[in-house]
Design goal:
8 helices, single chain, about 0% strand, mainly alpha
Length: about 130
């Protein structure tokens, strides 16, 4: 997956690892444990990827926390804020976060695992 992001989006290794780590942290927060475990089976070096995600605390993290209290619309705003803050720390624009999703989705589609595909679609639906 990391190599696909580097090849398709022109990001460096640190940016790819950090971006995927952020997205997977959000997915982990949004999914129940069994769904995330199903995804995790297909990711080599998951702990390293999660550890590579930049920390998104500070003011933007607090604003995201406030936004999540506004219901589902606020929850989506909180996710966008969290991803935007993290991608900024990777020297990537927030628009780049949206470019990561199709590459990650295609990575899992290549695994030909319908359960994972359904879970990924559920996560993307919860983020959008």
């Amino acid at each position: 997956m990391i190599e696909l992001l580097i090849k398709n989006l022109g990001v460096n290794h640190t940016q790819a690892m950090g971006g995927v780590g952020l997205i997977l942290q959000v997915a982990k927060d949004k999914l129940d444990g069994s769904d995330f475990a199903e995804i995790a089976k297909h990711i080599t070096g998951l702990d390293d990827i999660l550890d590579a995600a930049p920390k998104t605390g500070g003011l933007l993290g607090k604003l995201g926390g406030l936004a999540s209290g506004l219901g589902s619309g606020g929850e989506n705003l909180a996710v966008i804020s969290r991803l935007g803050a993290g991608f900024s720390k990777l020297d990537l624009g927030s628009d780049m976060a949206m470019k990561f999703f199709p590459v990650i989705e295609s990575y899992f589609r290549e695994k030909n695992d319908e359960a994972v595909d359904a879970i990924i679609n559920k996560v993307i639906g919860k983020m959008g």
